[in-house]
Records
---
Amino acid sequence: MDWKAIATVAVGVIGLLGVLAQRRYNRAQGRDRAKADLDLLALLPEDSSVREELRNHIDETIRHIISVEDTERRDGFGIALASAFLIVSAAFVYFFIEYSGWWLALAGAFFFVFGLAGLASDVPRRQRDSRV
């Protein structure tokens, strides 16, 4: 197995994921967006035709923050469990490549499917019940 090629691909993928994450989290959202809109509202002249529309938009944004964004969260335990499933899956795939046991590939596929399903259900922010 050519570890140098795998390391090169891994570094490239990690770099790409870092750029995508930075792009995602540097956008103005929620409170930052409402603050920017309030600053813009303060700069508008009193007789501006869009002043009332912007004020209504700010009210809607703040209502959304209070009702949704403050109550939505991710399921940390589910994310950790799904990540563990994916790590176990990677270990099975590694041993399948090294020892060529078909059952290792089958076990790896099983853990991979459940790991992806767990991440898909637990990573998005949702309103979760009090038990979680």
---
Amino acid sequence: MDAHENTAGSASAPEDGPGPVRRTPAPSGAVPRMTLPGPPYDEPTERLLAKLMPPGTSLEPLMLFRLLAVHRDLAERIHPMASGLLNKGLLPDRDREVVISRITARAGAEYEWGVHAVFFGPAVGLGQDTLDALVTEEAASSAFDERTGLLVTAVDELFDEATVSGGTWNRLREIYDDARLVELLLLAGWYRTLSTLITSAALPLEPWAVRFPTAASR
């Protein structure tokens, strides 16, 4: 959710077809379901948006941050945790982005997936083919190496069952200590929460964000 927590666009999912993305498209459109603060911003909103956006950026405040600014007090309270998960976590950066990309794709939050696909995924070595596969492919796909496939499996189980199976848990314990396991669970949960906000508010895509791969490209 932080300045570095890039997010981008409406929550429309790909058409029905193979792959794990939600089958029912989330609401999307040019107009969100609620009025977002816009310029000129009042002073408290301007301060909040400045805190959420990266220092020195030329981008306009993200629509997600403007949506959060509808409830400024809450946005201020959740900011430390959100920023900590994105910028100060214990998980390897690539693992973090795999989890975020998969959970937002499963939730149909094209906005958040698309922002991370522009900024954060490439910055940690995730190519567009892998980012697209995190939208369209099952965990056992040859598109994923063993570690990525394990993370995808864990995220899918959390999305579908709100828990991790015993076998997956044991495999995760081979690569993570307890603190990192706690972070993994909170990371997936936080980005599912953000996805719910994005899709329910029908937040439009940022104009520069990456779109979900289309059914035709699978």
---
Amino acid sequence: MVLISRRRLLYGAAAIGLLGGCGDPERQSGVTTPQQLHADISVWDASSVPSVQVSSSVTVTYGHGIDGLPEFPGDAVQPQDLGGKLFLQICGDDADAVRDAAARLRPDGRLRWREQGFCNSDRTNVLGFKDGIVVPKTPDEFEQEVWLPDGSTIAVVRRMKLDVAGFASLPLSDQERVFGRRKHGAVPLSGGDEVDLSAKTPDGEYVIPADAHVRRAHPMTAGAGLMLRRSYNYAEGLLFISYQCELKTFVNTMYRMADGDALLRYATTTSSAAFRVPPLD
């Protein structure tokens, strides 16, 4: 067990290796930490996370609410589920440890909403696909696209209800066109390891449809930077979580998706908020 305080929030599983050099700001864990299997995601009207003992196997990440995230076409967010003052993300590979930490780390304030998230062993979502979009991969990309100079980052958190039955009723080929990927193996319809948006058929048609998710959400077509996606499945859909150095990265991407992404026909956002995840004091 470790004591969780504002400064000690860093010290979860594998967090030591994420520290910067001497004099660098100490960043929170649970952002670039390799994604764990289980998560407790909650949004509160509260000011801080209590200092309590939790298992060293979990990571705890918190953020404070910020303005600037608009409602997008197709959103169905009730006032209770829009925004919030405090974001709390507790992750770990041991579901019991995550539940125990969530019970101990109850902020002094009103709970807006909470969900328990999970990753499938094959990393597919509840629609049966791997939703692979271009993300930061190199240390330089993490520095440029995820972290701000003071050691903070911006989190966007959206709870999305997915129409699993409606999507499952589509023929497999149509499902694959919605994502722009093969269901088995997650290979892009363009072939190869990376999405090739320029690939065409012998007849001159784009291999990846104009409304495919991998095209609409691609940074090149969205005119946006890279975001680090750290989403989880939940009972009714997807807990979308992204980290980026500026909010407009997500906003620009989402507006591009709202203008014709086929996947959004099967997804309804019911909670939405943005938070600044500060460095540790």
